[in-house]
Amino acid sequence: MENAVVQRHYTFEEYWEMELQSEIKHEFIDGQIIAMPGVKLKHNKITLKFCFALMSALENSNFEVFMESVKLQIESKKDYTYPDICVASKEGINPDDLLITNAVLVVEVLSEGTKLYDKVDKFLRYKKIPTLQYYVLVDTDTVFVDVYRKLPDGEHWEDDIYTQLSDTIPLPILGIQLNLTDIYEGISF
Known about the structure:
The protein is an alpha+beta fold. Helices cover 23% and strands 32% of the residues. A hairpin with a 2-residue loop joins strand 1 and strand 2.
């Protein structure tokens, strides 16, 4: 006879109460609560550099940049994540809220333990956000940035890969370009 593993199904309210009191972050996916792993120093440094580049480029724009501790709502009361970086339109953001619902760009800095999850599962979930236009994956082991752009039909995505420090990432919907040197300068591989 096989042993069955029973997973508890949490309500959004149970998750939210736990998350408000927890010292570590958790994602919430359709009733399941998943603890977020810690990150290495290189991951943190690349995330900071990318965030700073976005903040500098978007300083006088209609967009706001958020990092790591801000929860992103994918589906109300069903799916919440903590992206490494998130850019959202200032319109519709309440500074007293604990979450973002209108992300335009999401950046995930890859780590060994989350690469596959970020590339496949998270991307499938993020595609459900109607306002999302860009999904960016940043490697920590080499110069490699994969930028997914939503096509004008609103359903399909295409990606461009950037692998040279001299490369520039165009983000026309945000009205900016980012240089890979701003993200990777000073990072040793």
